[in-house]
Amino acid sequence: MKKLAVIIVAAICASCAAPDNRARIEHLTNKDIIPNDSTLLVKIAGDKQVKFLGYTDFDDAGSKGGQIMYPGGNAGVFLVSVLTHSATVSSIKNSEKQHLQDKADEVLLPYRSSINEITTDKLIDGSVKAGLPNGGLQLTYFEQEKQQSGWIVESSPVFFITQDQSNIILQNPVIIYEKENSAKPYYRNLVEIVFQLPADQKATSYLNADGQLTRISSSLFSSSLKLSIQDAQHQLMQDGADKTFSYYLGKEKVFERGKIAQVDCERLTIRTLHGWLKSVPALADSSNEPGNCATAVNTANEQPAPNKI
Amino acid sequence: MKTQIQAVLALIALMLGGCAATPQAPVELSANMWENNKDATVGIVMTAVPKPDLYLPGANCLLCVAVASAANSSLDKQVDTFNDENLADIKNELAKRLNQKNVKTVVIIDPLKIDSMPKHKSDAPNATPLDFAQFAKSHGVTHLLVVDIRLLGIQRTYASYVPTSDPKGVFTGTSYLVDIKSGTYQWYMPIEIYKSADGQWDEAPAFPALTNAYYQALATGKDQIVSKF
Predict the structure, then answer these.
(1) ipTM score of the complex?
(2) Residue A202 CA to its chain's centroid (Å)
(3) What pTM value is reported for the model?
(4) Residue A262 bridge partners (DSSP)
(5) Phi and psi, residue A4, nearest 5°
(6) Quick one: CA dihedral B210, B212, B214, B217, positive or negative?
(7) Would you say A55 and A104 are in contact if contact means Cβ atoms under 8 Å apart?
(8) Band of the pLDDT at A302, cuts 50, 70, 90?
């Protein structure tokens, strides 16, 4: 009986993983910092075309479950029926998640032509021109054919548009390494930036207007590089107790568990439980008066502050 | 024979009718509630907050439970580290919000024991199944705001031995406002929150995505209750 239970557990645990379009990356940091007079070569992996997806969660995926009667003529028949059931359910779950993602991607249809204009070259160009704050480290273009040495900051950004079209979210896995030592990353992390569209604008006309989506995407990309480099240079907060932070996605209040990495009047950067960085629009403090700076932690029932990136 | 068949069918119909109680539908809080009840004193009470736990509904046979528990043992260890973020303090938050609307409140410290509450029989619309009159006598309140949390933690559904969903953060229960004198709900809100992990969930031993999903479910549930006031 025990052997049968072990076999069943092993078989079920070996079920295939569901398709997942979200970036996965293991956070890696280094106790040293990049020398302050260094130049960082900006590189984006993969295609020239920037990837966009519809944002969705999988809260409704999966069935309610329930008791199943298995044929049990003998242990072999029973085991085969359990394995078959397991494989079927796994396939259904994966198929369901893929269906949810395909459905979510329909939100991109009105923006197809604007999305097609965004190339990785434009993102890199925007980040190099924006540069880094406080002087010191410099950003420049990585060019494959040139014999450049130095530090490379490589990423593969994916942009999401939420279903109510009020937010654009960038998820950018970033790796920093020395060109001569590419097998040993110096820093690695996933940076997420949540951008909220102005509340008084219609999403389609706003985002499709004259290169607007390209500008916003470029700005988000640039912000993600800045944050990752600040983190690599130990300029963000590391310690503190885990808390649950709130922000708005559209009209919906959402929550994230983690520590404060950086906070200012307009944005809150959270170090998530994975060690990733998530930058969200700050919630206005209830006592905020025009002209005063607001602190962003857990204020309910406030309208989202318009965010700049 | 025909009479016998009719009698059996009538008996079956009677039994089925008795088994299925109509579930309470949500009741919206009237916009004029506090204006129309200026003398109201609201007692605020909670049932005992459950310890965060791992729920495996559908794994109902003995061997099913053993198999499901074994398959999720490392997740269960992580769930043991979860806290409820001082959920019982929601009573004080609710009291503060009602006080800001000039409503008098009494925060009742002892947890509500629903199983030992007397029944209330009434055919009135939105009548409560329980009699809360004792609170009027003991605490001098006219209304009772109840927060009843049932499930808190992580849930993964099963069909016997086979998981039919990924584990999700779970927060379920009900919250309601009772007019003690009339024995009716002035507000009734079922709460069913399931939060999936953002991305891959199976990241033993710390399960960061699932841990996040749990705290998201907890915060969302708390916010759903508090934001009504």
Answers:
(1) 0.85
(2) 25
(3) 0.82
(4) A269
(5) -60, -45
(6) negative
(7) yes
(8) very low
Does A58 score more than 70 pLDDT? no
Burial group, residue B14, by CB count within 10 angstroms (0-12, 13-18, 19+): exposed
Please give the residue of chain A at the shortest CA–CA distance from B82: A242
- Angle between helices A212-232 and A120-130 in degrees, nearest 10: 60
A22 touches chain B (CB under 8 A): yes
Using the predicted structure, report yes or no on whether residue A271 has a pLDDT greater than 70.
yes
The span from the CA of A157 to the CA of B125, in Å, is 55
Contact B211 A1 (CB under 8 A): no
| Residue among B160, B194, B195 whose CB faces A67 most closely | B160
Q: Residue A291 corresponds to which amino acid?
A: G
CB nearest B161 (choices: A57, A82, A273):
A82
Q: What is the DSSP letter of B124?
A: S
The interaxial angle of helices A2-13 and A75-104, nearest 10 deg, is 20
Contact residues on chain B for A70, CB-CB shorter than 8 A = 160-161
**Rounded distance between C-alpha atoms, residue B214 and residue B225, angstroms:** 17
pLDDT surpasses 70 at A249: yes
Helix (H) or strand (E) holding B139: helix B133-139
Write the single-letter amino acid at A47. Answer: D
Q: With the CA atoms of A25, A58, A105 and A273 taken in that order, what torsion angle do they form, in degrees rounded to the nearest 10?
A: -30
Q: Is the pLDDT reported for residue A92 higher than 70?
A: no
Q: How confident is the model at residue A306 (pLDDT cuts 50, 70, 90)?
A: very low
Q: A232: which residues sit within 8 A by CB, 6+ positions away?
A: A29, A30, A33, A34, A176, A186, A187
